[in-house]
Amino acid sequence: MTKQQIWEWFANHSKQILDFLLFLALVSMGAFVKILKQVRQGAKASWKWFLAEAIVSFFVALLVYGFFDQFMQTSTLFTYVVCAWCGSFSTIFHKRMEDLLGAIFDKLKQLISEKKSL
Asked: Which domain of life is it from (predicted)?
């Protein structure tokens, strides 16, 4: 590719590139807020932990983006802000999911125990 072709590609896709950069910036800020909050609560910060928290935040933000953008068709900026907010609270979603799965498995264990005792 020549320089001219690269510049044309950027010119043709400038809106998508700016949207992606805005999404990245807002979700990064949400992940940063989440990480700061956890460090203040006593979490031990390491690169592995930081990377894991960032990945989970971005994953949750992408799920929220898909829902708000594709199904609810809200404005782009509002969608990105909700993505950042949900990404920063991804630990809460994770804990609630663990609670839900734990309850399901406990109920299955109880049902199996009841079937065996009959």
From this structure: Bacteria
pTM of the predicted model as reported, rounded to 2 decimal places = 0.59
Assigned domain for 97 exists: no
How many distinct helices (H) and strands (E) make up the chain?
5, 0
Domain boundaries, position 56: 3-88
Q: What is the pLDDT of residues 11-58, one digit of tens each?
A: 999 888 888 888 888 777 777 777 788 788 887 777 777 777 777 778
Q: CA-CA distance, 52 to 58, in Å (whole number)?
A: 10
Is 83 in contact with 30 (CB distance < 8 Å)? yes
User: How far, CA to CA in Å, does 73 sit from each of 18, 50, 66?
Assistant: 19, 32, 10
